[in-house]
Design brief:
The chain has 447 residues and is an alpha+beta fold. It folds into two domains: 278 residues, FAD/NAD(P)-binding domain; 145 residues, Elongation Factor Tu (Ef-tu), domain 3 (Beta Barrel). The strands form four sheets. It has a six-stranded mixed β-sheet with strand order 6-2-1-7-17-16. Strands 10-11-12-13-9-14 form a six-stranded antiparallel β-sheet. The chain is globular.
Length: 447
């Protein structure tokens, strides 16, 4: 019997996950990635699965929706989650990774799989046969034109995204900083940089007025709420930052002091030599970044290893174009995955790649792909991006609001989230048993 074959375009989180899921199901995969021959302004590494913004994959507990999505990914044998777990650095209740170690491990696993052929070149057209397109939110040029032609000239939508600066740990003034996690969860996972009211107000005023770098080539000036530049947040009110990345609640210095505002720095590598300014994604000029962040006492002599940058993210009008398995409605052997489908975030991109890879493998095996149950985080996210009733489509992170409500009300939010997670994992386990135990076509297949 001939081995089924598929093409995956794009070696980011979604593309690597899709390729892995296909190969693990006996499909010979050609994975095409343009790096290292060509990069974008957001890329700095030659490895696959590069994390271009934060090194955090967000919450890792079942009391939050990202944690539920991770639990599901682990049950589904996700390549990306296994590599993340193997390279994690302490980050309280979050899953953060050693940025370079993680990307290197994913690359090694992909290159070592006998059914995956990694091709380092840029493809400018959609695959002629079965495939997954995961070219990322910076897709442009010939590939963007190819996608537009395929969909009858409909231009993809877009929004702006931004990355936070990285600083050297050795350059942080430890006389003005202290280690600790919010509410004491997770030990000394964060380096906290406190500000008095006067220091905070001086910082916020300077930040709101600081010079922004030009973003050339884009006419769309919308800012995605889930990854808002810190300077935009500063302009929204005196306390906007204090309810966001400078939130002081749950943080107390070793001597018992509390503060008006606190910026947290998160370890960006295992060695602890590099720290990320949590929540401070920005597109200020490099000079403005150095000047303004130096107003935070602990960062007055900070050495910036990477300044924040801003770039345009592009995504499809997925509710009109894709089904709940991320397949193109009019071409069921062609799938899209990653942020260009309108899922927002690292793990959401992974989930889309896993869904697309498994679904395409089913189709190549002669089985109709079946969407994940709506009660699961995977199913809820896929249902959102494929729902034609969504008129003004915008990128979405996983959240409990996407899941169907419980049959019985719960007393508090924590209890409700725990119940939603328990229901989701039970539904996923039943789904996996049913799919592994039957070759019949279940109801509710993607079409």
């Amino acid at each position: 019997m001939n081995t089924p074959q598929a093409t995956v375009i794009g070696g980011g989180l979604a593309g690597c996950e899709a390729a892995w899921q296909l190969a693990e199901r006996g499909v010979a995969v050609t994975l095409a990635e343009m790096k290292p021959g060509k990069t974008t302004p957001a890329h700095h590494s030659p490895y696959l699965a590069e994390l271009v913004c934060s090194n955090s994959l967000r919450g890792d507990r079942l009391e939050n929706a990202p944690g539920l999505l991770k639990a599901e990914l682990r049950r589904l044998n996700s390549l990306i989650l296994s590599c993340a777990d193997a390279t994690r650095v302490e980050a309280g209740g979050a899953l953060a990774v050693d940025r370079e170690g993680f990307a290197r491990l994913v690359t090694e696993r992909i290159q070592g799989h006998p059914l995956i052929t990694l091709v380092s070149r840029e493809l400018t057209d959609l695959p002629a046969g079965p495939g997954v397109v995961a070219t990322g939110p910076l897709t442009d040029g010939a590939m963007a034109a190819s996608i537009a032609r395929f969909f009858g000239g409909a231009a993809p939508l877009s929004f702006y995204d931004a990355a936070a600066p990285l600083v050297s740990a050795a350059s942080v003034d430890m006389d003005c900083a202290f280690f600790g996690s919010r509410y004491g969860k997770g030990g000394d996972d964060y380096l906290n940089c406190p500000l008095t009211r006067g220091e905070y107000e001086a910082f916020r005023t300077a930040l709101a007025a600081a010079e922004e770098a030009p973003v050339r080539g884009f006419e769309d000036s919308r800012v995605f709420e889930g990854c808002m530049p810190v300077e935009v947040m500063a302009r929204r009110g005196a306390d906007a930052l204090r309810y966001g990345p400078f939130k002081p609640v749950g943080l107390t210095a070793p001597d018992g002091r509390r503060f008006y505002a606190v910026l947290q720095l998160r370890r960006d590598n295992v060695a602890g030599s590099v720290y990320n300014l949590v929540g401070c994604q920005t597109h200020l000029t490099f000079g403005a970044q150095k000047r303004v962040f130096a107003l935070i006492p602990a960062l007055r002599r900070a050495e910036f290893l990477r300044y924040g940058v801003m770039h345009r993210n592009t995504y499809l009008d997925a509710p009109r174009l894709l089904d709940a398995c991320f397949a193109v409605r009019c071409a069921p052997d062609l799938f899209f995955a990653g942020q260009m489908t309108g899922v927002e975030g690292y793990i959401e991109s992974v989930a889309s790649g896993l869904t697309a890879g498994r679904a395409l493998a089913d189709r190549l095996a002669g089985r109709r792909p079946v969407p994940f149950p709506a009660e699961t985080a995977h199913g809820a996210l896929a249902a959102y991006i494929s729902n034609p009733a969504v008129v003004r489509f915008q990128p979405m992170n996983i959240n409990f609001g996407l899941l169907p409500p419980l049959d019985a009300p719960c007393k508090g939010k924590r209890e409700r989230y725990a119940a939603l997670s328990a229901r989701a994992l039970a539904a996923l386990d039943a789904f996996i048993r049913d799919r592994e135990g039957s070759q019949e076509k279940p109801e509710g297949e993607c079409v």
